[in-house]
Amino acid sequence: MKKNNYAYIDGNNLYRGVSDSGWKIDFFRFRKWLSDKYGVTKAYYFIGLIPKEKDLYTSLQESGYTLIFKEVVYDSNGRAKGNCDADFVLQSVVDVYENNCEKQILITSDGDYAGLVKFLQTKNKLRVILSPSIEKKCSILLKRTNAPITYLRDVYNKISLKRKNPH
Fold first, then answer.
1. If DSSP codes are grouped into helix, strand and coil, which group holds residue 115?
2. What share of the chain is helix, strand, coil (3-state, %, to 5)?
3. pTM surpassing 0.85?
4. 129 near 3, Cβ under 8 Å?
């Protein structure tokens, strides 16, 4: 039987967690893996909207992600800040109450989502948390929920960007 599970990806958290671990994710392979492993039919990707990144957005959409953009503001050092946490939580809760999916997969290492994890657990809607960070950098608040956590580093061979052979 085909599953109808949804993934919710904190784009900045995914990017930073994987980059800090010294590798790059292949977004096409990652989307296929989410589908094959967890029956993900829709993968929301929450990301700040920066015009110069339009090629990345196009690539993500072509790989099967549904992009949810957040307006970006810049700090005093000129660094972009597009906090998507509220949009992430709201979409997840809407999907629970509208019964849009069977289970949810959260891709984040951010403890700000611990309350959402507990809510999903009470509704029997959480499948797994996929942590982009290594274990010691994944929030203790997520770990304390006793939710199942898979570290993306553990599936590196399935989802990493392989160097292209020049020949």
1. helix
2. 45, 25, 30
3. yes
4. no
Distance of CA 56 to the CA centre of its chain: 15
CA-CA distance, 103 to 123, in Å (whole number)? Answer: 10
The Cβ of residue 7 has, within 10 Å, a number of other Cβ atoms equal to: 26
User: Does residue 45 sit in helix, strand or coil?
Assistant: strand
Helices 114-122 + 85-97 axis angle, to 10: 10
DSSP letter string, 85-108: HHHHHHHHHHHHHTT--S-EEEE-
CB 17, CB 131: distance < 8 Å: yes
Q: State the Cα–Cα distance between residues 11 and 151, nearest whole angstrom.
A: 16
How do residues 27-41 score in pLDDT, each as one tens digit? Answer: 999 999 999 999 999
* Dihedral, 17, 155, 37, 117 alpha carbons, nearest 10: -40
Taking alpha carbons only, the member of 33, 34, 19, 22 closest to residue 106 is 34
Q: Which residues of the chain have pLDDT under 70?
A: 1, 163-167
Rg for the chain (alpha carbons), in Å?
16
